[in-house]
Design brief:
By secondary structure, this protein is an alpha/beta fold. Helices cover 33% and strands 16% of the residues. The chain contains 11 helices and 13 strands. The structure holds cytidine-5'-triphosphate (CTP) and magnesium ion.
């Protein structure tokens, strides 16, 4: 599962008090920078987990409220950041289980990140191992030497053709990036972006120029510029929510189990006293299986056989409510939630009417 790491633990010193908290102050449209980042990641469908590195307890209630509104169903992990950006990234990485996923590290102070950028980065990282937003430098760059008495400083040209300005998100496999940041810490190196950490392991990201500005709220002068850009993107926002996805989806599920002696009968998560149960590898709850398949189908995901293969020890006698929970979580990772479910059961026995309220529960 992929994880977004949103860095919000800085102290915003260069903002000189122009915003009380640059990642949590409302911007054009009402959402703060951190909220816009959460929404972009939720809409991208690329991550199933969000880790927010926070600065202090004052931020926590606001972070929770944003997550509840903008990323319902995506698990949120909060971790206290550290003194430097690198410390915050490593603290976040240490909370992520090793399941082979990617980490999308993003400055919560860059609110212009778009779902399509995140999807392009994921595709690049899957193909080439790692990816980062960066853009060619267009200004003429000079190195300035300390001025000598009564003369201007000396300047030296720096050829710019090979220069790139690094931004975020930056995407790396979690385990690799964690090793890289641990190595930087052990060697006492001060890395200021994720690519610099990965370079210690000789891993270099493919670079993506997103083709739109992706500024970081750094100083007071950035506020008007970021708000102007946000006012333009909200004009262009399509009227249907969720990017290019329709506002709601419909999925169908279908399952058949035969009766078997000596088995429990579980339907819709409810154990029903009966002379026979249903044959199957899990608890054989065909109502839950059909429901989970409908949710996965609506989300455009593979069916339950793909995620919960029969015949495996981990699915033996499995509680099928956990299969439903898993399907709902996978849909939530794509920004979808279940509106309602209409379920039909075809069976001559047992009588189920009395159990329906418990099943609905
Ligand atoms: N950040 C962090 N932990 C730190 C330092 C920075 O999580 N110890 C985060 C910031 O919250 C920000 C991003 O990293 O989203 C980029 O950092 P920067 O723009 O430098 O933000 P601040 O460090 O907050 O600002 P300043 O350097 O002006 O104090
Ligand atoms: Mg900083």
């Amino acid at each position: 599962m992929n994880t977004a790491i949103l860095l919000a633990a800085g102290s915003g010193r260069r903002m000189s008090g122009a915003l009380a908290d640059k990642v949590l102050a409302p911007l054009h449209g009402g959402l703060p920078s951190l909220g816009l980042c959460m929404r972009a990641f939720a809409r991208s469908g690329c991550v199933g987990r969000i880790v927010v590195a926070y600065r202090d307890a004052e931020q926590l209630a606001q972070i929770d409220a944003l997550a509840a509104d903008l990323v319902p169903g995506i698990p949120l992990v909060r971790v206290q950041g550290g003194a430097e950006r690198a410390d915050s990234v490593l603290a976040a990485l240490e909370t992520i289980p090793d399941d082979g996923g990617l980490a999308f590290v993003h400055d919560a102070a860059r609110p212009l990140v778009e779902p399509s950028d995140i999807r392009k980065l994921e595709a690049l990282a899957m193909r080439l191992g790692a990816a980062a937003v960066a853009r060619p430098v267009t200004d003429t760059i000079k190195r300035a030497f300390p001025a000598e008495a009564r003369s201007a400083q000396k300047l030296e040209d720096v050829p710019r053709a090979s220069l790139r300005a690094m931004e975020t998100p930056q995407v790396f496999p979690v385990s690799l990036l964690r090793s890289a940041y641990r190595a930087a810490r052990e060697r006492g190196l001060r890395v200021t972006d994720d690519a610099a950490a990965a370079a210690l392991l000789d891993v270099h990201p493919a670079l993506l120029d997103p083709g739109h500005p992706n500024p970081k709220l750094t100083g007071p002068e950035d506020i008007a510029w970021v708000n102007f850009l946000l006012s333009r993107t909200s004009e262009q926002e399509p009227k249907v929510p969720q990017d290019d996805k329709p506002p709601f989806r419909i999925g169908h599920g279908y399952d058949i189990h035969r009766f078997a002696q000596g088995r429990r009968l579980v339907l819709g998560g409810v154990e029903i006293p009966h002379t026979r149960g249903l044959e199957g590898h899990s608890d054989a709850d065909c109502l839950c299986h059909a429901l989970a398949d409908a949710v996965l189908g609506a989300a455009g995901l593979p069916d339950i056989g793909h995620y919960y293969p029969p015949g495996r020890p981990e699915t033996k006698d499995m509680d099928s409510l956990d299969i439903v929970r898993g399907a709902v979580a996978k849909a939530a990772a794509l920004g979808l939630r279940v509106g309602n479910a209409d379920i039909s059961l075809v069976a001559q026995e047992p009588k189920v009417a009395g159990h329906i309220p418990a099943m609905k529960e």
